[in-house]
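Figure 3 (text version): structure tokens given as input.
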């Protein structure tokens, strides 16, 4: 889950903005606007560092719109709950800045160091696509901060990983199954929310189904998440995410032991229905969202999420999770995981130790489990998905 997740419909640097009078092309910002926008982004980053340190999100309110502030406050809380004690901007590299009237876009490549309460740290470099708006006084504010490369995959690799079968894919944040090689327009599964161990160190795990993301940067996904904070308290949440936009929680209470079904269905071109059912409580949640997908893959995944573009969070000790009734619509046909020729994915840590391992598919071709190993979740900044 990812995910700044994160990410709002990808901010194209040369996007065409429609107005009542016709299309207006974004143009390169002049020196004055560029300086003002760079200063604002630097100040906003500084304020997020201060907000994490002080555990006070209000510090960030003056540089962003109210809607983006709510998102940043939630992301900061997720970071703190997941055991983050501090963040530091190591380096910022500037890309293009474009302006059209009262709107602007800016691209940066930011290297951040994340420090956790146990003293470990992680460092990652990500592309940030900012969208900005100016108010009546002409002052700029950040409206969105997208991370369009979060879902991208590295080039195929044949490097062997100890303990992982040669025919399995490996990932630093996914475990489960993924199907490619067709046009995928629906995916679904049922699972039981795992009981995250609260007698271990902090960590997070997320369970989801999705379309896209294996061989493309687009990914629409929905599922559940468990967070063990630094005090050992466990929080459970249902969520959805449309990359590159950040994930957002949905109004469906879930708890350990609940049976949850999630389905994504493209009802019309670029229009998706996301449906949740808590089979234990009988409660449901459904919404329709616009989203342009490559339809290039379908996934059933247990994940070590990231948050706020600050790298992967440590995987908790979730034990084992069982997927049942997993299916997808590929090239117009409803298929099981097996019939869709999905490939198993093992999650590995920074030392290439297996962290979460999928079982073989059940006799029905639509069920499997993912088991957490005893290996510690050594932090890593390596590629997130490796396909042999």
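Below: residues designed for each position.
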């Amino acid at each position: 889950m990812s995910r700044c997740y994160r990410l709002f419909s990808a901010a194209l640097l040369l996007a065409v903005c429609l107005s009542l009078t016709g299309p207006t092309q974004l143009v390169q910002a002049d020196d004055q606007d560029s300086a003002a926008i760079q200063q604002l982004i630097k100040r906003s980053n500084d304020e997020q560092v201060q907000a994490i340190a002080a555990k006070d999100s209000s510090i960030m309110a003056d540089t962003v719109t109210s809607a983006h502030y709510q998102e940043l406050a939630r992301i900061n809380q997720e970071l703190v709950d997941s055991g983050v004690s501090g963040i530091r901007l190591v380096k910022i590299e500037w890309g293009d800045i474009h302006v059209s009237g009262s709107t602007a876009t800016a691209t940066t490549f930011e290297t951040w160091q994340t420090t956790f309460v146990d003293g470990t740290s992680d460092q990652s470099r990500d592309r940030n696509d900012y969208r900005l708006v100016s108010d009546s006084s002409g002052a700029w504010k950040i409206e969105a901060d997208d991370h369009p490369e979060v879902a991208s995959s590295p080039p195929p690799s044949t490097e062997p990983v100890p303990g992982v079968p040669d025919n399995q894919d490996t990932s630093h944040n996914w475990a489960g199954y993924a199907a490619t090689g067709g046009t995928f327009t629906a995916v679904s599964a049922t699972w039981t929310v795992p009981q995250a161990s609260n007698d271990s160190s902090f960590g997070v795990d997320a369970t989801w189904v999705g379309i896209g993301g294996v061989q493309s940067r687009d990914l629409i996904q929905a599922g559940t998440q468990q967070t063990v904070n630094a005090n050992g308290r466990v929080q459970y949440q249902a969520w959805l995410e449309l990359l590159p936009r950040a994930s957002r929680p949905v109004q469906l209470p879930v708890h350990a032991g609940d049976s949850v079904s999630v389905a994504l269905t493209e009802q019309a071109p670029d229009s998706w229905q996301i449906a949740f059912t808590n089979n234990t409580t009988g409660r449901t949640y459904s919404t329709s969202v616009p989203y342009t997908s490559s339809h290039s893959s379908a996934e059933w995944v247990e994940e070590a999420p990231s948050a706020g573009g600050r790298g992967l969070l440590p995987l908790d000790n979730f034990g084992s999770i069982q997927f049942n009734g997993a299916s997808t619509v590929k090239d117009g046909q409803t298929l099981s995981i097996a019939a869709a020729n999905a490939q198993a994915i093992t999650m590995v840590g920074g030392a290439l130790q297996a962290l979460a391992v999928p079982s073989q598919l059940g006799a029905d071709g639509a069920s499997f489990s993912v088991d957490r190993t005893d290996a510690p979740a050594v932090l890593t900044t390596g590629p997130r998905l490796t396909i042999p």
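The helical segments are 31-54, 66-81.
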